[in-house]
Amino acid sequence: MRVLERMDLAARRTGRDPGKIKLIVVSKTVELARIREAIKAGVTILGENYVQEARGKIEEIGHGVQWHMIGHLQKNKAKHAVTLFDYIHSIDGITLAQEIDRRAVQKGKRVRALGEVNLSGEASKFGIVSEAVVDLIHHVASLKHISIEGLMTMPPYFDEPEKARPYFIRLRELRDRIQKEGIEGVRVDELSMGMSGDFEVAIEEGATMVRVGTAIFGERRY
Q1: Which residues, 6 or more positions from 220, have their beta carbon under 8 angstroms from its beta carbon?
Q2: Which residue blocks in the chain are alpha helix, DSSP H?
Q3: Annotated domain spans of the chain
Q4: The domain 3-217 is classified under which CATH number: 3.40.50.150, 3.40.50.11810, 3.20.20.10, 3.30.2270.10?
Q5: At 24, phi and psi to the nearest 5?
């Protein structure tokens, strides 16, 4: 079954509008010819993990599609990310947010972004701890050239998708708590969660963006 069909069914199981859920096709390590085929098939959003790899692809393919930065972003790459990407999913601290804001001022643009939350506590994963998210949102609200529009997380890897459900629930609850804060000028609506192995569960728990690569392009060859 195709990914879009699976997304549609998962949304309808919980009474959600499938049209409100964005498919981000993860094109990390995928060659240009296959990316172009995906675009011809209807893909409108591509997700990349590394600034350097993305730069070459974006120069070749252009901005007829949206490009989302979904991997960890180092502060020293912020100026490139601001130029290249339409959306950044990986704001994991105030220092990075400030640097992106500074670079965005220079480019005369406003950066759309998500706060990355580490809910698993795994040292191998990036992201801000949940207890610090509200402070991050409050701080970013004072910046004029970056807007955090939601949250992103990556749960531990499980063979059974159901085991990821508690992490998706926690991110949704955290988002809801931030919304109740009523922070002026902030609308934290987006939830970027769910990948090839668990995106249906994520949609059932409120995902508005799912990041899918393997289910579309197959296993990566590194």
Answers
A1: 28, 29, 213, 214
A2: 3-13, 32-40, 51-61, 78-84, 94-107, 133-141, 165-181, 199-204, 214-217
A3: 3-217
A4: 3.20.20.10
A5: -100, 115
CA 68 to chain centre: 7
> Residue 222's pLDDT is what?
57
- What is the C-alpha separation between 57 and 94, in angstroms, rounded? 29
pLDDT value of position 187? 86
- pTM for this model (two decimals): 0.95
Give the per-residue pLDDT at 18: 96
Q: How many CB atoms lie within 10 A of CB 149?
A: 16
pLDDT given for residue 221 in this prediction? 67
C-alpha distances in Å from residue 41, one per residue of 15, 130, 220? 27, 38, 20
171 DSSP assignment? H
Hey, what's the torsion of the CAs at 138, 143, 148, 149, to 10 degrees? 100
Of 212, 207, 211, 148, nearest in space to 179 by CA: 148
Take residue 63 and report the two structure tokens written for it: 């901005």
What is the per-residue pLDDT for 219? 84
- Count CB neighbours of 157 within 10 A: 12
Identify the segments of the chain with pLDDT beneath 70. Answer: 1, 221-222
Say how many C-beta atoms besides its own lie within 10 A of residue 125's C-beta: 17
